[in-house]
Amino acid sequence: MVDGQRGPNVLVTGTPGTGKTSTCALLASATRLNHINIGELVQGLELHDGWDDQLQCLVINEDLVIDHLEEKMSAGGNVVDYHGCDFFPERWFDVVVVLQTKTAVLYDRLSNRGYMDQKLQNNIECEIFQVLLEEARESYNKDIILALPSDTIEDMSNNVGLLKEWLRTNAPSYLI
Length: 176
Ligand code: ADP
Ligand code: MN
Prior knowledge:
Blueprint: E1 9-13, H1 20-30, E2 34-37, H2 38-44, E3 48-52, E4 57-60, H3 62-75, E5 78-81, E6 95-100, H4 103-112, H5 117-128, H6 131-139, E7 145-149, H7 153-170
Parallel strand pairs: 1-5, 1-6, 2-5, 6-7
Antiparallel strand pairs: 3-4
The structure holds adenosine-5'-diphosphate (ADP) and manganese (II) ion (MN).
């Protein structure tokens, strides 16, 4: 249920390559929700502590990200896109979507993105072991978690439809 004091906030999480950014962009284009891509924000505003050579990614500064977003999230009306979910304040979100993709499909998407070797392997294992679903279950009420398949374009369209249906019930003013 949406907190009476603010608009709805949706978190879309999942292993890299599962379709978070594509799904959030489609949802934002079909509703009044504002897409917040945490990876882009961290890079653009340098909300990080430098580059991790081993993991081949920026080291996010979680406190800076939370401080930067507090006001927007307190107003509501956002769909947040990130491959992690345990450091956000639990109170921020009304729905937590965990996108899931079959191994073979994810392998192709990440290879196309240029991921190789250890980074490719780490992300495939992250998906096989359902790391993000487990992280979501440890961080949020199970009643607000939706694990959704994201193998095909049809899946994406169904997932956006489901979230629009959720808005219709819980925050209809955010529909276009
Ligand atoms: P993420 O943000 O989770 O890393 P992206 O949205 O960038 O994932 O998607 C990675 C690639 O996979 C993109 O080329 C995108 O077009 C494709 N893709 C994502 N989700 C789907 C889907 N449900 N069906 C088909 N292709 C998808
Ligand atoms: Mn993305």
